[in-house]
């Protein structure tokens, strides 16, 4: 059903509402079995009270003649029984009780206390439980008009009935019949106005509770979504760290193992020394990988680390280790150079680690794709407004670009998983990444982080 805002009676339907009437107003849910049981107990209490009141009124001689028994029974059942359905069918219940009340008074059934309570409850229920606000408004207007017409007629009759006034009574400022009519009028105005106002306020309160419950449920669902997103981000971060740690060191170990195998196969005099150096480098790379993995696992197990915190990186490596990274490449039998340009600036640990991981990933890709004769150059540049990192090689740039750009289910068309990880890392710190083949041959990876971002994060 379409929802449209209402600016008149009632309230506007919001995103929290689950149902609305034809005018777009919120519809109060059914009371359920607990509400029906409570209304049943109320009907029983009204029936017992009305029966006892009729006995008392009859004993006190409220009317000249005692009530007809079946009139009294109809009065008791008519004002109490319908209350069981006062929340589910409030308009019908109010009409029935009003007709029975009129019947009882017209037939001189001496009961006005509990029947008035029943009529008040029914009128209240129209405002509090009416499923249609328009029907609730119109039905109450009609009932009130009918009741006041009857009261006006009764008051007029009483005003001209001289038998109600003793002959020796002194007439004050207001005639007794008129005074009686005014008292009746004021009493009923307050009576019906109270039932009307209290019923509408109960409906508004129920709607406010429904909105609050719906918003609370929405916040709970949002917390669940946020927690799921945090878990997903943690998985991405862990996968990225594992990729960086394992891929680099395994690549270096593979190259060293190949160098040792070739050296032993030549039979040269220095082959044993070369193989020993290569195996030593493999051992050191394995230890570095184990240390990195140990830090990663320790971070995951730490109770003080908040999930999703971008500053909880498991690695303590940064730009200060770029020279050592170049040394690792040279130890693997490749040619590598490192150069730092400009005055060194302080950056946050997160940016420091990010730049190192980008360099590590780019070097790993060069070791895999550039070829054994390629030279790898690492350059860290500090300018007036940015920190730039360049990793270039002189290898087979064109073929690598095609291979790295092959799209798959887990990588975008802009590069493989390694490039995707680099882009995500730099995006997290406000940086940018440029990758591609160089015109003079080879491949270039350039990362740039603005100094304003770096200083703000530090």
Short summary of the structure?
With 458 residues, the protein is of the alpha+beta class.
Outline the secondary-structure elements.
Layout: H1 32-59, H2 69-80, H3 90-106, H4 113-129, H5 133-159, H6 176-266, H7 271-301, H8 322-331, E1 335-341, H9 349-369, E2 375-382, E3 386-393, H10 397-404, H11 417-428, E4 432-437, E5 443-450, H12 451-457
Parallel strand pairs: 1-2
Antiparallel strand pairs: 2-3, 3-5, 4-5
Structure characterization notes:
The protein is an alpha+beta fold. It folds into two domains: 32-223, no CATH class; 316-458, Histidine kinase-like ATPase, C-terminal domain (Heat Shock Protein 90, 2-Layer Sandwich), CATH 3.30.565. It has twelve helices and five strands. Strands 1-2-3-5-4 form a five-stranded mixed sheet. The chain is rod-shaped and about 140 Å long. 31% of the residues are buried.
Number of strands: 5
Helical content (DSSP H or I, runs of 4+): 55-70%
Termini, distance in Å? Answer: 54 Å
Oligomer state equals: single chain
Class inferred from helices and paired strands:
alpha+beta
Number of domains: 2
Q: In angstroms, what is the radius of gyration? A: 44 Å
Largest sheet: 5 strands, mixed
Strand order of the largest sheet: 1-2-3-5-4
């Amino acid at each position: 059903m379409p929802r449209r805002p209402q600016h008149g009676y009632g309230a506007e339907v919001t995103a929290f509402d689950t149902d609305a009437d034809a005018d777009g107003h919120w519809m109060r849910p059914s009371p359920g079995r607990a509400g029906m049981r409570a209304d049943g107990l109320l009907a029983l209490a009204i029936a017992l009270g009305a029966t006892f009141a009729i006995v008392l009124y009859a004993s006190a001689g409220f009317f000249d003649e005692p009530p007809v028994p079946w009139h009294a029974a109809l009065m008791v059942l008519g004002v109490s029984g319908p209350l069981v359905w006062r929340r589910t069918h409030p308009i019908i219940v109010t009409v029935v009780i009003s007709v029975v009340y009129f019947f009882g008074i017209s037939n001189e059934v001496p009961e006005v206390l509990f029947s008035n309570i029943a009529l008040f409850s029914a009128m209240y229920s129209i405002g509090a439980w009416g499923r249609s606000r328009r029907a609730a408004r119109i039905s109450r207007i009609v009932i009130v008009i009918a009741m006041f017409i009857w009261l006006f007629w009764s008051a007029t009759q009483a005003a001209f009935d001289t038998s109600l006034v003793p002959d020796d009574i002194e007439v004050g400022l207001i005639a007794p019949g008129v005074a009686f009519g005014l008292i009746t009028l004021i009493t009923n105005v307050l009576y019906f106005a109270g039932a009307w106002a209290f019923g509408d306020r109960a409906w508004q309160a129920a709607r406010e509770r429904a909105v609050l419950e719906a918003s609370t449920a929405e916040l709970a669902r949002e917390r669940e979504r946020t927690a799921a997103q945090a878990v997903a981000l943690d998985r991405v971060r862990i996968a990225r760290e594992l990729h960086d740690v394992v891929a680099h060191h395994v690549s270096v170990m593979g190259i060293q193992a190949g160098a040792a195998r070739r050296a032993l196969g030549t039979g040269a005099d220095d082959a044993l020394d070369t193989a020993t150096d290569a195996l030593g480098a493999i051992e050191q790379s394995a230890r570095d990988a184990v240390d990195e993995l140990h830090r990663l696992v320790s971070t995951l197990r730490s109770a003080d680390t908040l999930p999703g915190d971008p500053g909880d990186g498991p690695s303590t490596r940064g730009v200060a280790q770029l020279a050592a990274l170049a040394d690792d490449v040279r130890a693997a039998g490749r040619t590598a150079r490192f150069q730092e340009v400009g005055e060194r600036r302080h950056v946050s640990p997160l940016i420091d680690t990010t730049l190192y991981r980008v360099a590590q990933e780019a070097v790993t890709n060069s070791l895999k794709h550039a070829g054994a004769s390629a030279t790898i150059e690492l350059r860290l540049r500090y300018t007036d407004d940015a920190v730039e990192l360049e990793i270039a090689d002189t290898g087979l740039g064109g073929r690598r670009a095609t291979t790295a750009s092959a799209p798959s289910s887990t990588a975008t068309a802009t590069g493989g998983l390694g490039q995707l990880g680099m882009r995500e890392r730099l995006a997290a710190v406000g940086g940018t990444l440029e990758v591609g083949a160089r015109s003079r041959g080879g491949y270039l990876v350039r990362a740039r982080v603005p100094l304003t971002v770096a200083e703000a994060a530090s």
